[in-house]
Amino acid sequence: MLQLKHLRKSYHVGDTVTHALDDVTISFRNQEFVAILGPSGSGKTTLLNVIGGLDRYDTEDFNYYYNGDLIINGQSTEDFKETDWDAYRNNSIGFVFQNYNLISHLTIIANVELGMNLSGLPASERRERAIAALTQVGLKDQITKRPNQLSGGQMQRVAIARALANDPDILLCDEPTGALDTETSEQIMKLIKKLSNDRLVIMVTHNPELAEEYATRIVNFQDGKILSDSNPFTPVDEPSTFELKRTKMSYWNAIKLSFTNIMTKKGRTALTAFASSIGIISIAIVLALSNGFQKQIDTTMSKALAKYPVTITQTTTDTSNDADEEKYVKSRGYVTAAPNYLQQTTHKNKISQNYLDYVKKIDPNYANNISYQLGVNLNLLGNVNGKIKRIQFSSILPGETESQSSSSVEMPNISFAGSTIFPTSLNKNKSNFLQENYRLLSGSWPSKPTDLVLVVNNQNSVDVNVLKNLGIKINPGEKLKFKQMVGTKYKVIANDNYYQKLPRNMFVPKKVSKAMYDSSKVELKISGIIRLKNTDSMALLSEGIVYNDQLAQEIVKQNKNSVIVKTQKKTKQNVMTGQNMNATAKKQMMQSIGSSNLPTGIMIYPNNFESKDKVLAYLRKWNKGKNKSDRILYTDMSDSLTSLIGKLLGGVTAVLIAFAAVSLITSMIMIGILTYTSVIERTKEIGILKAMGARKKDIIRVFDAETFIIGIFSGVLGVTLACLLIFPINSLLYSITDLSNIGQLNPIHALILILISTILTMVGGHIPARMAAKKDAATALRSE
Ligand code: ADP
Ligand code: MG
Fold it and tell me: What range(s) does the ABC transporter domain occupy (predicted)?
């Protein structure tokens, strides 16, 4: 039983007020066929919308408080909330409109099932009921057609079937035959008449003949007021038997609904998805390339750099101290003397015989080549065209820079530019350092400790000073035949024959003479000229003369007991300059004249990239359980270089991604606009859904589902296109850099990008979706 008490509804447009319902009081029986007749604009649609809960009756005006009420089965609706009305519409009301209001992108059966989706019936029951309703209206054979494939009468039957499917208590029909010819109208009226046998039917019409013929009660309506009622009903107060079942649309149904909608505008959706996937494409490619380059650095580059030795020098920087965080201290009016930074970070490696023995026991399968730098100076003489001359294996001009030459004694040349000493192979059969990395240009490979080699650079040149120091008269730009170099001999003079003792324990080099030259039996020979095999790799040995560490060992052996060494041992005073020395300076001086066979530096060449870690682990093992000061720290040049390049690459990647992200924002805005367009287009659908009892949430869900689908689609599209684009990019990079397959998209990155695309499009579409949900259902349905 339905009761309307003093209902009012007015529309305010500008200054004009339209009283669409003006104090309407009427009651309806549970089963009857009521026809409402009245002229256009008299408020009939408004009445149906208010009864159906699509529109709210007024409760107050600027000046009045109205206590109108709509009572359903004894239940007042005064305190109904939005969701109560939604549930009421879904549970109790069936709407049939003049213009059918079917959703054009859904099939007939899907249209009929729509309302049941909201009431949460299982799929099988929905289908069963929809088929039953369609059978009842005589459309059993048309269920897979779309609305635009049906005639007007058939579409109205579908609308009736949709209203019936949920078995509503009240069927509201707003001019259901208004757009139909007489014959079809008769059929529809018969159908509605039949339905009024077990429910209340309220039908608006302006055809009095049809009303006379079919309705059981005729109400005349004018200016929002009831003029006459052919069969009034006086209700008796009854207790409330009203019950509400909440409505809810599942995410899955929202997705299905939006999917069929998207399928009706494939072209536009594809274009939008493509446009918005451009951001994803660019980020994916940047990530793939950065990923690939990083891999290249980690493998190819590290492999190349693995040739670089792990070095152990007398002094090194202890980077573990760098971790000390700088604490913020308030200004307290005093200055603290901080420990000297250099002293703090400088670590002295005490290379002992024990350590040397330990290093020598390294597995040749990991590092077969080790060189030892001895700080010893070679006393060299050469016979240049019959003239005996002092010789030096360095690019520093004698006498040019005193301090520099003394510092070259102090620090063996183990800078990154390469070493002057080439390593000895632990296992002669396994590998030969020189032959592996260098190409012989002339002469032969060194076979004895006294064999020297001349290393030239990629332009086949060496520093002019290196040649001058070998006693050759040459100017920059002049050429020297290989023949003139290969086979050249030099002699190493023992300290006792080289130095002259002066009074007060001072020593000076003797004047060069033929006798001095003849005194030595240690004859060195340039056996060959070599240069790096691979033009890309960096120098392992420095340009100029390089020799084997065994030669240095021999020299030390020869000079260990020389007078100059014995004398220097006993005094703090430098026996050559007369200056007083501290312990470090004295040690260096002693080493330079050959007092110690302990190396000042060790260079360990790992066999390959994989074995380097083993070598490092072996070196770290020595330090286990040792005091900080007793530890021996190594330097791994290739590691610091690769990590530096890695950091650079990371920085470049971040900048590129930031640029690419801008296009993501653009696509987000585009999706927002698309959703907004979709909201406008689907206004009628929103009205229909609301008429069926959809909540605001459900409407939001439908549009969120739409952007979700587009987001996933554009993400997948972007990743797929990026993967395809990587092929030509890789072949381009291959032709430029010779590196194959640089771009490789990490699957995890691909997934994350799809996720980001989905989230961003959903964010972009959410505001229009909320706007859609706020749309007034009655207005939405009036829009055409
Ligand atoms: P009927 O269905 O009997 O033709 P309606 O119920 O559609 O009449 O409209 C009743 C009156 O209310 C009309 O004057 C109409 O212009 C006005 N009206 C209906 N809806 C609105 C609205 N959303 N805003 C302003 N006026 C409206
Ligand atoms: Mg109307």
Answer: 2-248
Counting the structural domains of the chain, the total is 3
Instruction: For ligand 1, pick from 7, 8, 11, 204 the residue to mutate: most ligand atoms within 8 Å of CB.
Output: 11
Q: Is residue 410 over pLDDT 60?
A: no
Ligand 2 centroid, distance to 13 Cα (angstroms): 18
Cα 41 to ligand 2 centroid, rounded to whole Å: 7
Same domain, 466 and 525: yes
Whether residues 752 and 766 fall in one domain: yes
Six-digit token pair at 657?
A: 């991604």
Ligand with the closest atom to the CA of 97: 2
Domain that holds residue 766: 262-303+644-782
Binning pLDDT at 50, 70 and 90, where does residue 406 land? very low
Nearest-angstrom CA–CA distance, 361 and 356: 9
Q: Are residues 664 and 690 in the same domain?
A: yes
Q: What is the pLDDT of residues 471-496, one digit of tens each?
A: 888 898 899 898 888 999 999 999 99
pLDDT classification of 415: cutoffs 50, 70, 90: very low
Tens of pLDDT, residues 660-712: 888 888 877 887 888 788 888 888 888 898 888 888 888 898 888 988 998 99
Whole-angstrom CA distances from 634 to 305, 319, 525, 637, 767 are: 16, 11, 34, 10, 60
Same domain for 297 and 312?
Answer: no
Q: What is the pTM of this model?
A: 0.63
Structure tokens at 334: 């005093």
CA of 265: how far to CAs of 107, 184, 269, 593, 681, in Å?
16, 33, 6, 90, 11
Overall average pLDDT of the 645-672 stretch: 83
Hey, what's the torsion of the CAs at 31, 37, 40, 45, to 10 degrees? Answer: -10
Q: Is the residue at 627 inside a domain?
A: no
Which atom of ligand 1 approaches the CA of 46 most closely?
6
Is 402 or 536 the better-scoring residue by pLDDT?
536
Residue nearest to atom 2 of ligand 1 (CA): 45
In a domain, 252, yes or no: no
For atom 10 of ligand 1, the residue with the nearest CA is: 43
The verdict on 528 and 381 lying in the same domain is yes
Same domain, 268 and 231: no
Binding-site residues, ligand 1, Cβ < 6 A: 11, 13, 18, 20, 38, 40-46, 779
Ligand 2 centroid from CA 550, angstroms: 110
Count of alpha carbons within 13 angstroms of residue 550, beta-carbon side: 13
Q: Bridge partners of 455? A: 530, 544
Residue 410 resides in a domain: yes
CA–centroid distance, residue 37 to ligand 1 (Å): 15
